[in-house]
Amino acid sequence: MSDQKNINIPKRGNTGGGMGRGPGGPAGMIPGEKPKDFKASLKKLARYLSAYKIGLFFVLIFAVASTIFMIVGPKILGNATTALFEGVMNLIADNGKGIDFNYIGQILLLLLGLYIIAALFSYIQGYIMTDISMKVTYQLRRNIFAKINRLPFKYFDKTSYGEVLSFLTNDIEMSVII
Fold first, then answer.
1. 177 vs 72, which has greater pLDDT?
2. Concatenated DSSP letters for the chain?
3. pTM > 0.90
4. What residues does each domain of the chain span?
């Protein structure tokens, strides 16, 4: 036993890494790093998304409507529960009344309609948002490609591949391309 070497075996568990991530988060990011001028970046992003303001307005409307229908649903379900409870109590008290299944059925059909409308609104919201995000991504990629084409060949001869990517990534993060 004394002739065995001590071997450090790394512990399993949450090491903070995984899927191309380092201990501090996504690859290349320093933990806690914040943008230098958040307000300016936010203004540039708002200006960039202003072309899609009508779509974003409808996304907001559909999100609010879907949320309202999802919030109202349990309150209406409570009416069905109350009617069922009162019917059971009437059966126990034996006062001649029973469970009103027609009323409960109407409430459940109304509830089903509300949830279908909420799901439809949520689907429409997701569809519009997906369309906007695809268009924004396409425009960003087109802008990056245009920026790469503006760079002289001399720049690529002097600069390593990683530095070019760092340059473009920095421009994207600082919204210079936009």
1. 72
2. -TTSPP--PPPPS--S-BTTEETTEETTPPTT---S-HHHHHHHHHHHHGGGHHHHHHHHHHHHHHHHHHHHHHHHHHHHHHHHHHHHHHHHHTSS----HHHHHHHHHHHHHHHHHHHHHHHHHHHHHHHHHHHHHHHHHHHHHHHHHHS-HHHHHHS-HHHHHHHHHHHHHTT---
3. no
4. 53-173
